[in-house]
Write a structure and sequence with these properties.
This protein is of the alpha/beta class. It is built from 20 helices and 14 strands.
Length: 458
């Protein structure tokens, strides 16, 4: 039930609104002056406020201004028996949803209330969606190096300065690029990503700058390039170190002139684009080897940001692991699981050559393969952490989620049997299941000791 706070110094108006609103199944509370209204707001915020303009003490506009300083999203509908255009304009500037004159028309009042509540619901849904999206791309970590990166992002993002992000594969360079765009003045415009390593050299220019119809074999229609698509926003050139020298020359020209020319075209098209680049290569070595233009390197590296490998910020691993575990459980409909302290310690001690990406994939495997509410420590010793070979084949075999779980369960049980030298009692105990249940699983998956027709009890 939606709660509406009515603020008016006339008892007759309060009684009338109470009758109208409660008949429509709204919960109604009252305040006879501005001071009382602000106290109620602090104690129990309503879903909507109906606020009289002319009151003794604090008038409605003063109350509205105070409300906006503390609660930006609360919808407020102003009501007044002495309404003027100037008052209505001032109320709108202060963030009032609408302005209704007295005597109040019942139908217009109810339509306004419904519209105000509907808009508030939409705003709340948008806020949750935005938080969800931002949460997906948030940079996690409490280490000094991550705090320095976050501080640098906050200082650099509002400007249009170009940024070069460096770091090993899987460290989170894309997260830095997204944070720079999200906190920039271009956030309402698109962030366009180009993976330079994934595009063949002969197609990279068409991808970046577009092409005209008939400009080359297969160009059956005009194509708008990534620079034009990012106009007003941000262009993220990932793996810039893999771009051909010819394409590098054209990118340099765009950065210098702010204009692109489509392949096969003769017209310069103005573009307003902020360029953020990233690479896992040592660009200076590429420059010295003649594989990357020195002038483009310096154009891109106005602000350098280096993302450290996970092994250089091990103190962040528990925080990352917990966050990934919560996300994978929610995404796959699994019960909320947790890490024992020993498991977090084990994860923090590993090398993680694949960095954050490898840690995330590992946590997903652990969450799916652990049968209980706690991550199974035996899985860490069974080689699932640095998952290779058999577990990689399980992940890549395709099929339904149920089929994947069955393949994984069979592999896990087999590994436990091997670790316990096929002793059924010990294996059942380590799995925390009945021996009869283990026998059933073994029969279902066709598990038996190599060279034997049946397993041994001892």
């Amino acid at each position: 039930m939606k709660r509406i706070l009515v603020v008016d110094d006339e008892k007759g108006v309060r009684d009338s609104l109470k009758m109208i609103l409660e008949y429509e199944k709204y919960e109604v509370s009252f305040a006879e002056n501005g001071e009382h209204a602000l106290k109620q707001l602090a104690a129990t915020p309503p879903d909507l406020m109906l606020l009289d303009v002319k009151m003794a003490g604090m008038d409605g506009l003063e109350v509205l201004q105070s409300v906006r300083e503390k609660n930006v999203d609360l919808p407020v509908v102003m009501i007044s028996g002495h309404g003027t255009v100037e008052t209505a304009v001032e109320a709108t500037k202060l963030g009032a949803f609408d302005f209704l004159p007295k005597p109040l028309d019942r139908d217009k009042l109810l339509v306004t209330v419904r519209n105000a509540l509907h808009q508030a619901n939409l705003s709340e849904e948008y806020r949750k969606l935005r938080e969800s999206v931002e949460g997906r791309w948030r940079i996690l970590g409490e280490s000094l190096k991550i705090k320095e990166i976050l501080s640098l992002i906050d200082r650099v993002a509002p400007t249009d300065v170009r940024v070069l992000i460096t770091g090993e594969n899987g460290t989170g360079k894309e997260l830095v690029a997204r944070a720079l765009h999200r906190k920039s003045k271009r956030t309402s415009k698109p962030l366009v990503e180009v993976n330079c390593a994934a595009i063949p050299a002969e197609l990279i220019e068409s991808e970046l700058f577009g092409h005209e119809k008939g400009s080359f074999t297969g160009a059956t229609a005009q194509r708008v390039g990534k620079f034009e698509q990012a106009d007003g926003g941000t262009l993220f050139l990932d793996e810039i170190g893999d771009m051909s020298l010819q394409a590098q020359a054209k990118v340099l020209r765009v950065l210098e002139e702010g204009k692109v020319e489509r392949v096969g075209g003769n017209k310069l098209i103005p573009v307003d684009v902020r360029v953020i680049a990233a690479t896992n290569k040592e660009i200076q070595e590429q420059v010295q080897g003649g594989n990357f233009r020195d002038d483009l390197y310096h154009r891109l590296k106005v602000i350098p940001i280096h993302v450290p490998p996970l092994r250089e910020r091990r103190e962040d691993i528990p925080l990352l692991a917990e966050a990934f575990l919560e996300e994978v459980c929610a995404r796959n409909g699994l019960p909320r699981k947790s890490f024992p302290e020993e498991a977090l310690g084990k994860l923090s001690s590993l090398a993680w050559p694949g960095n954050v990406r490898e840690l995330k994939n590992t946590v997903e495997r652990l969450a799916i393969l652990s049968p209980g509410m706690s991550i199974d420590l035996a899985l860490l010793d069974a080689g699932v952490v640095q998952g290779r070979g058999e577990f990689d084949s399980i992940l890549n075999a395709g099929g339904t989620f149920q089929e994947f779980k069955e393949r994984a369960e069979a592999a896990f049980i087999k590994k436990q049997l091997e670790l316990n030298k096929w002793n059924i009692s010990k294996t059942a105990e380590s799995l925390d299941i009945q021996r009869s249940h283990l026998y059933t699983k073994m029969k279902r998956y066709g598990l038996m000791k190599e060279g034997e027709a049946e397993t041994s009890e001892t």
